[in-house]
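User: I'll paste a sequence; please echo it back and then give the predicted structure.

Assistant: Echoing your sequence first, then the prediction.
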Amino acid sequence: MTIPQELQYTADHEWIRVEGDVAYVGVTDFAQKELGDIVYVDITTEGQEVAQNHIFGTVEAVKTVSDLFLPVSGTILEVNPELTATPELVNSDPYGKGWMVKINLSDASQLDTLMSAEEYAKTIGA
């Protein structure tokens, strides 16, 4: 199981990668394996301010639907356009082409509440 060291993680299995004042958010390798084959990603919050730990969308797998929680407060700048036609990118490349949203951080200090790769690995028993 892959847990990139440069990312930060939530207990709800989202990751965040900060690049300047914007960040990319997606679900972890652990999450996509637990969900199974992802068939649809539904994110309708583009352009909206979403608070930390609030739902920004859902992901649908063959047997389940799961809410997506934003790791930090921010404005959803962009939804990954590739996920409309190829939601399975979340399964095949969760930390790369399978990213879900790009956000503008509202409060960078909230990053301090997230887990490191090592902490996340312990949480999932990896």
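The helical segments are 29-35, 82-85, 89-92, 117-124. The domain at 8-108 is CATH 2.40.50.100 (OB fold (Dihydrolipoamide Acetyltransferase, E2P)).
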